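I hope you will forgive my troubling you with a question about protein structure. Could you please explain, in whatever detail you think fit, how the structure tokens follow from the sequence? Thank you for your consideration; the sequence and its tokens are set out here.
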Amino acid sequence: MHVLHTHGDHAGAPVGALRDLGQGVASSATAGALGDFFQYEIDHPVTLPRQKSAMLPIVQQEVEAARVSIYNERVQAKHPLLGLRFKNTTGLHLMQGPITVFEGSSYAGDSRVLDLQPKEERLLSYAIDLGTEVEPVVKRQPDRITKVKLHKGLLYRTTKAREEKTYNVKNRSEKDRTVLIEHPFRPGFNLVSKDKPAERARDVYRFEVKVAAGQGASQEVIEEQDVEDALQLTNIDDPTMRMFLSQPVLSEKVKQALGRTVELRNKLSATQQEVQQQERQLKVIVDDQARLRANLKEVPPTSEAYKRYLKKFDEQEPQIEDFQKKIKQLQDTEVGQRKALDDFLAALDVE
């Protein structure tokens, strides 16, 4: 068991307490490295009476430690944890195990440390810091388009996402606090805030905030991420196309290419609408002819109604031929316009 005694902002640590279960025993040890392993060698022989036991001190010297409060929103949303920034200055390898922390002569809490190499630092937490509160406030800025390029019918858009998070710290205790704020490290996000972290672990940034007793402080963390996606130019609706054309980041070549795309699309769309209109008008006549055929079967051939139906039927035949001819011409135009649009988009490569 390791025992740490804290005094003010620093802690001295006799690591490995000597306890006497019979006759008092005092000894010391040295550690020897064996490749990736290590061993402790007792410098002086120890003699124990029969059926007696003793705990031997492995290391008994001062080590460096500073008191901090460690805040991680995912661990404790409101309060940081009381902790120590512990550095192994013994020159020996320290084995993992439990740690008992004392504030002066009073028990403060328990922690556990993993194996520590010489000169290695580790953060230890041993209790909740109820005297300090942290409120994280998130602000999401609107995404900004920073780049647009066109390539073979696709529009590639680069959008900059910006996230701001402010940690508001309130120290309600009677002692000054050094708060280590752990902010998640996310691959792909760039830290752009003016305050740089004191350190970066594998999965968090650590920002150091000093807060006087009874006072407050804040730490702003700003991150940006570039996100690229691709849109099919033929699938972009008109409002979205107008939005892209209004972006100040567009180069003149991209604006011209998008303008030409809109022009070709509009021509194609107008032709398609004309085809649909002609087909609707043709359908009206064809449906009417079906009605006339049914009526001609029901009335006598010598009646006036029969003659009237037959005359109208004959008049509609040229109209049907005219509509079919117009539709065929429009469909040919549509095919040509679609090919012109496809060929133009396929050859695009501008940014």
Remarks:
- The CA atoms of residues 93 and 117 lie 5 Å apart.
- The longest helix spans residues 252-298.
- Residues 6-28 have pLDDT under 50 and may be disordered.
- The helical segments are 238-245, 252-298, 304-346.
